[in-house]
Specification:
This protein folds into two domains: 217 residues, Porin (Beta Barrel), CATH 2.40.160; 210 residues, Porin (Beta Barrel), CATH 2.40.160.20. The chain is 5% helix and 73% strand. It is built from one helix and 22 strands. The N terminus is likely disordered.
């Protein structure tokens, strides 16, 4: 009986203590902000991408045949690049990052041109050919960027070094072949995101100026001579993966622990919604062009036109986020461009009244309608994109015999586009993106009858464009 009374009393006392505790104010749990990546530290990494040269080139040939011949066009070596980088970042104040980076790249870039007798027996069988390759390059650059969490937008610039191989030949017999060690400067920018652990990924654009090269081909005895001057200019787009070897650990953005009244999840940007935006950047065409005398069934030129210039416009799209890191969506955009390039082929390129050909090509505008698929984590989204593309190309093909006969027209083309990019949430409803697109708009043929010579001339061009642009989007809802 005593034991039963003791148990009942103890239970009553415990119940009373619980009742009193229930009436006391509860202590708020403490929320500690999640770790924020700190960019300070040494890193190593690898990268891969593509590069497009836009090398204004002048060739002068003299000797047997019709006399002095001049061509003025743009060599456009293009191909895969890949290599590695090493660098150091220092984060301060607290959203700014400075650093240095060095990289070395192998390249498969190449392009070729042919002038005069590229497919027949005109001009006494003389042919001038050029083959140009960028075999490797290296850069040493400073970086300055702005970060707000797990992303870093930056600009970069410094010195550049490269090896260019050039072959210049006359009629396939007399060669001028040499390797040129070039040096110059580089400038660009990109965006880098913290993927997890010590890993980061980046998308980057670089413009590289490597000065000029001069090549010469002479026969023995010196009856035929050809000289070439090329400015070496390169446009590079690449993705990279970095690993921070050692450096500062993740921090809490300097925010002390704070109390909140109920458990809650820190705000994470949700990509679902309708958005509108604007963009600006640059475009580089790489349009393989063949010029022919159709009456003689022969080709007298095969080269690359490279219309380049500013692009700018607007976009509208919708994203849907699910699973919870995957994002699908669609986007449409329309762009105005200032892209243009020209060439001149023939003895009269520097003197009026001689036989020669000119061509000027412009991309007036283009538009795309694309699907997007990406992976998101917090405030960044990496994505691939592809769909349909439309554009208008203006082509002005002229013959001087010495009459000035113009075959000028606008060509509305359609085709496809593919690319990718990275987008980051900046603040409130605003996001920013860096994007690369490749456009294929098919081909077209321009030309007609030259009344003085009685020959039909034609110019056939492919339309291929490479676009790099930054964009700013606002999520409507």
């Amino acid at each position: 009986m005593y034991r039963l009374s003791f148990a009942v009393g103890a239970a009553a006392l415990a119940f009373a203590q619980l009742a009193v505790a229930a009436d006391l104010p509860r202590k708020a749990p403490v929320y500690v902000p999640p770790p924020v990546y700190n960019w300070t530290g040494f890193y190593v990494g690898v990268n891969a991408g593509g590069s497009i040269g836009r090398d204004p080139t002048t060739i002068t040939q003299s000797g047997l045949g019709p006399g002095s011949f001049i061509s003025s066009n743009t060599m456009s070596p293009a191909g895969f690049i890949g290599g590695g980088q090493l660098g150091y970042n220092y984060q301060f104040a607290p959203n700014w990052v400075v650093g240095v980076e060095g990289d070395f790249q192998g390249a498969s870039q190449k392009d070729s041109s042919c002038f005069l007798d590229c497919g027949g027996d005109i001009f006494f069988g003389q042919t001038v050919t050029v083959n140009q390759k960028l075999e490797w390059f290296a850069t040493a650059r400073a970086r300055l960027g702005y970060t707000n969490g797990d992303w870093l937008w930056y600009v970069t610039g410094g010195g550049a070094w490269a090896k260019v191989h050039n072959d210049l030949a006359i009629s396939g017999i007399f060669f001028g072949s040499a390797n040129f060690n070039q040096n110059g400067w580089v400038v660009g920018g990109g965006v880098e995101t913290h993927l997890g652990g010590n890993w980061t990924g980046k998308l980057e654009y670089l413009y590289m100026d490597l000065g000029s090269l001069h090549d010469l081909a002479t026969s023995v005895p010196p009856l035929l001579t050809a000289s070439q001057t090329s400015d070496i200019r390169d446009h590079i787009v690449r993705v990279g993966l970095n690993y921070k070897v050692f450096g500062a650990a993740p921090n809490h953005a300097g925010t002390p622990p704070v109390a909140y009244n109920a458990p809650q999840r820190p705000g994470v940007w949700n990509w679902t919604g309708l958005y509108i935006g604007a963009n600006a950047g640059g475009g580089i065409g790489r349009n393989r062009t063949d010029q022919s005398n159709d009456s003689l069934n022969t080709s007298f030129a095969s080269f690359t036109l490279s219309p380049a210039g500013f692009v700018g416009g607007g976009q509208i799209g919708y994203n849907y986020q699910f699973l919870p890191n995957l994002v699908v969506g669609f986007e449409g955009d329309i762009q105005g461009t200032s892209q243009r390039d020209s060439s001149c082929i023939g003895a009269g390129c520097t003197s009026f009244g001689s036989f020669y050909f000119t061509i000027e090509q412009k991309l007036n505008w283009f538009a795309t309608a694309r699907a997007r698929f990406g992976y998101a984590s917090g405030d960044w989204l990496w994505y691939v994109t592809g769909g349909g593309a439309w554009g208008e190309v203006h082509n002005d093909f002229r013959t001087f015999t010495p009459l000035d006969v113009a075959f000028a027209a606008n060509f509305n083309r359609s085709g496809w586009t593919v690319g990718g990019g990275v987008e980051t949430h900046l603040i409130d409803r605003w996001t920013a993106k860096l994007e690369y697109l490749y456009l294929d708009l098919g081909s077209f043929v321009d030309g007609g009858l030259d009344p003085l010579s009685g020959f039909n001339f034609s110019s056939k061009s492919e339309v291929r464009d490479h676009i790099v642009r930054v964009g700013l989007n606002y999520k409507i809802y």
